[in-house]
Amino acid sequence: MKRIILISLIALLVLPVLTQARVTYLSEKEYKALKKKERVAYWENLETDLAELQQRKADAIANQERYSARIKEVNALLKTSKTEYDKIHGGILAFLGVTKADFAAIMNKIKFFNSEIANWNNLTDKELWKAKKSVRALVVEYNDYRGSKFGKVPDFRKDFSDLDNKIANLEANLASAKPKYYEDDYKIVKGDWLSKIAQYSFIYGDMSKWPVIYRANRDQIKDPNLIYPDQVIKIPRGLPYEWKVYKGECLWRIAGYQEVYNNAAKWPLIYRANKDKIKDPDLIYPNQIFEIPRD
Predict the structure, then answer these.
(1) How confident is the model at residue 31 (pLDDT cuts 50, 70, 90)?
(2) Closest Cα partner for 153 from 84, 104, 111, 112?
(3) How far is Cα 130 from Cα 184, in angstroms, rounded to an integer?
(4) Is residue 259 pLDDT above 70, yes or no?
(5) For residue 123, how many other CB atoms are within 10 A of its CB?
(6) Which residues are CB-contacts of 171 (< 8 A; sequence separation ≥ 6)?
(7) Helices 157-177 & 132-146 angle (0-180, nearest 10)
(8) In whole angstroms, what is the distance from residue 36 CA to residue 175 CA?
(9) CATH 3.90.78.10 is held by the domain 183-238
(10) Pick from 66, 174, 156, 74: which is nearest to 120 by CA?
(11) Are 262 and 256 spatial neighbours (Cβ–Cβ below 8 Å)?
């Protein structure tokens, strides 16, 4: 019975580490069923196992003391480091002219930019390009804010770094959404005339292209020599894939336009592409819309 009690005591001592023990502990009934030699071997195994566990416990206590000392050392270093960090951090905020009270507003601005970018990213290419003015305005607003004192607060470094990537992706998406043909707006200022506008470097850099502008705005420019300040006109970009017929036009004239083929002899291309609308190539009518084939 004493042996059984001792075995039970040993089992209690090693209970936390049973999963790592080498000995399979027996019940009282199993122990009584052992032969004498088996009991001796079992007992020797228990003694060995107990010795190993006691050594592990001693090692753990020693490690615990060592780790406790290290923890105290690290905590002291951490306290010193935090004190220095808070000092430098406060200096940075003071230099920027930003207080902790500004943090909520900065975070709200970050949320605003993230929300706007998410909205633009949900659009189709066509919708995104149609909204290009608003998208570009958002990019300008972000860049201005990013360059302000609020964009330099170290606490929001990761937020702004993420936004930098998102803005770059948005600009790339806008660029890829640009159609082969589109129209920009231009607001006429005093002293402008069509050839002068066409010569601007940000328009065509070529005054001879003024008819391209005129033809794109025939709905509001009746006389190409008469344009007025504050008029908003369209500036064609690229080559059109469709053409709306105006009074006095014919297929060879349309084909000869710079923005179409710049070659009147190519009129049959338009005719063949629009045979369902053109019964006689010599008879076309205002407001008809023709496809302009492109290679």
Answers:
(1) confident
(2) 104
(3) 11
(4) yes
(5) 15
(6) 139
(7) 150
(8) 89
(9) no
(10) 174
(11) yes
3-class secondary structure, 283:
strand
Please state, in angstroms and as integers, the Cα–Cα distance from residue 33 to each residue in 19, 36, 40, 104, following that order: 25, 10, 13, 75
pTM of the model: 0.55
157: tokens are 């470094």
Fold agreement (183-238, 241-295):
yes
Q: Concatenate the DSSP letters of all residues of 119-138 into one string.
A: HHHTS-HHHHHHTHHHHHHH
If residue 80 lies in a helix (H) or strand (E), which one and from where to where?
A: helix 36-96
- Collapse the DSSP code of 172 into the 3-class scheme (helix H, G, I; strand E, B; otherwise coil) and give the result: helix
Spatial separation of the C-alpha atoms in residues 116 and 114, rounded to whole Å? 6
Sign of the Cα torsion 249, 251, 256, 261 reads positive
DSSP letter assigned to residue 27: P
Q: What residue spans define the domains of the chain?
A: 2-74, 100-177, 183-238, 241-295
Closest C-alpha among 210, 227, 151, 217 to residue 183: 217
Which class in CATH covers the domain with range 241-295?
A: alpha beta
Rounded CA-CA distance 223/217 in Å is 10
Structure token pair of residue 131:
């909204």
| pLDDT (tens digit per residue) in 104-147 | 999 999 999 999 999 999 999 889 988 998 999 999 999 999 99
Q: Where are the alpha helices (DSSP H) in the chain?
A: 2-13, 28-32, 36-96, 103-121, 125-130, 132-146, 157-177, 194-199, 210-216, 251-256, 267-273
Phi, then psi, of 289 in degrees rounded to 5 = -115, 120
Are the beta carbons of 190 and 229 closer than 8 angstroms?
yes
| 37, 44, 142, 198 from 187: Cα distances, Å | 108, 100, 25, 13
Residue type at 58? A
